[in-house]
Amino acid sequence: MTKIAFIFPGQGSQVVGMGQEFVENAAESKAFYDRADQALEFELSKLMLEGPAEELTLTYHAQPALLTTGVMVAEKLRTAGIHPHYAAGHSLGEYGALVLAGVMSFDDAVSIVHKRGLYMNEAVPAGQGAMAAILGMELEALNAVTEQVSASGDAVQVANVNCPGQIVISGTKEGVDKAIIAAKEAGAKRAIPLVVSGPFHSELMRPSSEKLKAALAEITLSAPEIPVIGNVMAKELKDVSAIQQELVEQVYSAVQWEASMREMIAQGVDVFIECGPGKVLSGLLKKIDRSVAAYCVYDEASLEAVIEASKEWSINA
């Protein structure tokens, strides 16, 4: 039997016009955007569909925007008869996976991730932190670089282990700049600064975790209806207490994305569908394991392509 996972992208995948074709063509899709506006009490949907891009990129806008589009796309897939056996999300995307698994309501999730973004911005205001993707360097060697730079007084650390040859670092702007230079001197092939508004998944985010913990305590969480693989340990989150701990620690801990994908592959997942704008996660999967099928759904054409492909799958439980 074909085993399917829905995966949800994190910050950096946001784009003005995200989900527009679905929203314009289906009332049930537009309803997600309307519910997000109501939950946040401002017009997030207008920002998503019309921009400006610099406002959409701000973490407290990008997070609920990506969540809304991802969950809407996942529902389009389920309506088409494609149901996941597993779910995971990259950083912020983990909340989309938890909504899909019935752990929290969509409305609560939109509110929480908006607060999460605000707390993160308060911890390190936009422009004071940075992130960069380091290509072609082993984890152990890059850890040595970040530790050396941090010891000199400019905080930086590994933030995302995405796939073989791609690791993201995060920290102060000065720390990331110095680590880029040191990584290249140590043999890294390339370093690409990321378009994000803060040093996510670094110790600089720890102050935001206590506020997030308090906010999570105010909403109802339920046990997952399907397995969700968490970012921090790359293992299944089996109960509410584990999920609460995961979401708090995830803010300042590295995203173990490669390990998460390998865990699902080990459990028999052979089809991955990225729900939301962009093709980042699908691209990473090609570098992790070419034997699995990776799709992305972000508009009507890509949805139809997945529906057509699914005719060849054995998807009956």
TrEMBL record:
Family membership noted in the UniProt record: Belongs to the fabD family.
Lineage, opening ranks: Bacteria, Bacillati, Bacillota, Bacilli, Bacillales
Its EC number(s): 2.3.1.39
Span of domain Malonyl-CoA:ACP transacylase (MAT): 7-298
Name recorded for this polypeptide: Malonyl CoA-acyl carrier protein transacylase
Gene assigned in the entry: fabD
Catalyzed chemical reaction(s): holo-[ACP] + malonyl-CoA = malonyl-[ACP] + CoA
Any single Pfam family the record assigns to this protein: Acyl_transf_1
Example of a GO MF term: [acyl-carrier-protein] S-malonyltransferase activity
Broad EC category: transferase
Keyword entries, A-Z: Acyltransferase, Transferase
Native organism: Lysinibacillus irui
UniProt xrefs under InterPro entries: Ac_transferase_dom_sf (IPR001227), Acyl_transferase_dom (IPR014043), Acyl_Trfase/lysoPLipase (IPR016035), Mal-CoA-ACP_Trans/PKS_FabD (IPR050858), Malonyl_CoA-ACP_transAc (IPR024925), Malonyl_CoA-ACP_transAc_FabD (IPR004410), Malonyl_transacylase_ACP-bd (IPR016036)
PANTHER family: MALONYL-COA-ACYL CARRIER PROTEIN TRANSACYLASE, MITOCHONDRIAL
UniProt superkingdom: Bacteria
